[in-house]
Prior knowledge:
The two termini are 15 Å apart. The chain has helices spanning 6-9, 35-49, 57-61, 71-74, 119-140, 160-168, 207-217, 229-236, 269-272, 293-307, 325-331, and strands spanning 26-28, 75-79, 85-93, 101-110, 148-156, 172-183, 197-201, 247-251, 256-263, 276-284, 312-318, 335-346. The chain is built from eleven helices and twelve strands. It has 347 residues and is of the alpha+beta class. GO terms for molecular function: acyltransferase activity. Its EC number is 2.3.1.-.
Amino acid sequence: xxxxxxxxxxxxxxxxxxxxxxxxxxxxxxxxxxxxxxxxxxxxxxxxxxxxxxxxxxxxxxxxxxxxxxxxxxxxxxxxxxxxxxxxxxxxxxxxxxxxxxxxxxxxxxxxxxxxxxxxxxxxxxxxxxxxxxxxxxxxxxxxxxxxxxxxxxxxxxxxxxxxxxxxxxxxxxxxxxxxxxxxxxxxxxxxxxxxxxxxxxxxxxxxxxxxxxxxxxxxxxxxxxxxxxxxxxxxxxxxxxxxxxxxxxxxxxxxxxxxxxxxxxxxxxxxxxxxxxxxxxxxxxxxxxxxxxxxxxxxxxxxxxxxxxxxxxxxxxxxxxxxxxxxxxxxxxxxxxxxxxxxxxx
Length: 347
């Protein structure tokens, strides 16, 4: 009989062993001094795997700034005899322990010039072993021993090599996410604001309220766990977040009930072929759903983005969203362009 508690199921989980590969002289943990070299690998991979957007350097740096990631244990880089980093990976255990769920995101990249040599397979095996170890240790500290462990990696659909090595390691496709774009040359329909609701730009004084609204709005979404203050501050305090282009719906008594939050990374303009804003989050708190607030905040944000002179708006959506978000976005003019698959291994 399989033990009911995660801690019991993973009691004898071994730690990861450093890979061995003839083309790699050294496998080691990443250090902050490697940020630029790692970003170079990731950028080269981006150009092949998803050429319409690039990973900001800030995203790489966050692995060395986030308290839930220990770079000495949770990261790995592959270094050639010439001292060049050609592959990189991170196993990030989500800080939430809600419901006894322990979730790890595996991310990484192999420089395109070094692919199809088995380096990615070796890297993934290490990441998978480290993720299992993270879950096992965290489960031991949870009252009741934890309920479920989930290892997850996102794969761009054209990157079949990535999907293949994950499948070989026991990961299966569970969910698909579409990237959608809206041409802002097309007019935005201004929607009437319901009585008792005000539309306002995002204000940093409402950071805590916005985090609470985000966690409430997304608690029934696939793969979503509560965000914490550190991760939220990395987002709203980051270089790309645009409070002036973001919109919140607020009740007369001051409750934040819906939001559409946007960012702008000018480095992506050339990749997409158009200036644009990325809509990071759209949500409505559960007590105020089915009142037309989602299209309201989206339309208000699109009007602000258009007034900024940007040409497009871009977002990503779960194709099986429980709120029917993909149909909502199609209804306000967004068109799907490509897909990402979430591949998962459950422990």
